[in-house]
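Need a sequence for this fold. Nothing fancy.
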């Protein structure tokens, strides 16, 4: 069987305004949690769930030879809420009914137990990246408001979300969900596709229009209209979720052989008002860390994977060097606000522990509609190219050992920067640094030298935190009183493991 479109369901023309109207109506009524799947399906083991496989030959639009095809995701495991899926074509709107025959099961007993009305958890989009007859997965919508995307040369890694609510607060995080999707059927030769989505949660409802452009860099043009049910303490717009276990700027975990393990290695922010590009290397902290970077007029932010050589990881299975970066660009002036970085402790690489999002300076309030338009890109780190030198290495160690220094309770930090304006300077150029400590951090010494091995400039810093306060630093390179690099910033919590090794 191909797929099931329920009969008699065609409707008149349908568009973004219809989804906005539904979201506004939802927000005006009390929140009702979506129906959940049976408990035994939530308790399925990972391997058991993976044995429920969608048959690619049953992909939506496969027979019509469109470049885009749709694979359906079964509910189960951590996908606890079925979603409604609809197709929009020349006939109107028609829902896609659940059909167990679209899946193959390695366990006959499991197949018998799957309810005939289970429903789908989401869907995967494919595009012929590797040849006209191929169907390469590049975008997945499944679980709460999560979506994962890749460029044509990437492997899946970082995720995005429709919205984040109270992420990182002690009051607890809320996870609104996409509850219904409308897939606009593209013409056979189309290189773009449109998806509409309805979001609902205890604090707000929302409508989304997502125009998809697959490629070496995959771009999503997003329109989001949000309707709060109540005042929201911390709203996360265009949230990104990733994983960082350890890297060049942290000790390797005990017993681990790989040099680095992470989906992203830093946060990049561009404030158009100041012109500053700011880079913050990620860590796996011992306790929750929340950083707020105030911006006057956000030009963009993203979690990047700048370490993109196999030698950085040496992992033939995970291929972290192929994990995508993600970059968000507002489609207008969002006003004053902050880019928020939440870093959570994780004992292994199976947990996403990094979240970054923009939050408005004024809290969202009920009775109003808020629209946020933005571009979301997935691809390698070159998807955003600052005109200034970029951080390529950050190393951190004790400042009172051989190779680090001789001053007790200090830290040695080594930062290599290259690219942009720096590449226009010769090795003998008079490059200096502006380095400052924050929250009482003392900069004991700092100097810059050319690194001929990398054809980069190396900034060396010896710094001492104030008592029981974190080490906080920021710095950039300059030439003839002009900034020639992004601003590197670093925060090392008091309860770090630099001196004692990884736990």
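Here you go.
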């Amino acid at each position: 069987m191909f797929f099931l479109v329920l009969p008699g369901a065609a409707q008149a023309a349908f568009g973004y305004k219809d989804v906005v109207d539904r979201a506004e109506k939802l927000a005006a009524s009390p929140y009702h949690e979506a129906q959940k799947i049976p408990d035994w399906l939530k308790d399925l083991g990972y391997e058991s769930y993976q044995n429920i496989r969608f048959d690619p030959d049953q992909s939506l639009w496969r027979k019509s030879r469109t470049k885009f095809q749709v694979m359906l995701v079964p509910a189960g495991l951590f996908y606890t809420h079925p979603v409604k899926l609809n197709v929009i074509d020349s006939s109107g709107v028609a829902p896609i009914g659940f059909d167990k025959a679209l899946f193959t099961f390695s366990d006959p007993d499991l197949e018998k137990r799957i309810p005939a009305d289970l429903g789908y958890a989401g869907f995967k989009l494919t595009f012929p990246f590797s040849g006209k007859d191929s169907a390469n997965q590049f975008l997945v919508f499944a679980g709460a408001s999560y979506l994962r995307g890749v460029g044509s040369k990437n492997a899946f890694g970082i995720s995005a979300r429709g919205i984040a609510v109270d992420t990182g607060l002690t009051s607890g995080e809320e996870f609104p969900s996409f509850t219904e999707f409308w897939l606009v059927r593209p013409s056979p030769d189309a290189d773009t596709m449109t998806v509409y989505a309805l979001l609902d949660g205890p604090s707000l409802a929302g409508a989304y229009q997502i125009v998809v452009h697959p490629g070496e860099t995959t771009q999503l043009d997003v329109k989001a209209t949000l309707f709060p049910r109540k005042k929201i303490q911390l709203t996360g717009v265009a949230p990104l979720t990733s994983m960082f276990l350890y890297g060049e700027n942290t000790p390797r975990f005990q017993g681990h052989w790989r040099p680095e393990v992470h989906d992203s290695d830093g946060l990049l922010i561009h404030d158009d008002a100041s012109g500053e590009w700011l880079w913050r290397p990620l860590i796996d902290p011992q306790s929750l860390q929340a950083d707020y970077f105030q911006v006057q007029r956000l030009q963009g932010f993203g979690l990047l994977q700048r370490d993109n050589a196999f030698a950085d990881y040496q992992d033939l299975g995970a291929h972290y060097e192929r994990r995508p970066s993600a970059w968000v660009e507002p489609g207008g002036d969002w006003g004053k606000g902050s880019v928020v970085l939440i870093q959570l402790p994780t004992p292994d690489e199976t947990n996403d522990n990094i979240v970054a999002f923009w939050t408005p300076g004024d809290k969202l309030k009920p009775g109003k509609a808020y629209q946020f338009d933005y571009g979301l890109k997935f691809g390698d780190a070159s998807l955003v190219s600052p005109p200034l030198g970029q951080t390529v290495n950050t190393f951190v160690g004790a400042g009172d050992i051989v190779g680090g220094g001789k001053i007790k309770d200090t830290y040695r930090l080594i930062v290599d920067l290259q690219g942009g304006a720096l590449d226009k300077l010769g090795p003998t150029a008079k490059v200096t640094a502006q380095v400052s400590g924050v929250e009482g951090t003392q900069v004991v010494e700092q100097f810059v030298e050319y690194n001929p091995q990398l054809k980069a400039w190396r900034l060396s810093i010896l710094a001492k935190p104030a008592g029981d306060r974190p080490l906080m630093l920021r710095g950039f390179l300059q030439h003839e009183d002009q900034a020639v690099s992004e601003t590197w910033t670093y925060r090392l919590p008091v309860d770090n493991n630099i001196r004692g090794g990884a736990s």
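For context: The two ends are 52 Å apart (CA to CA).
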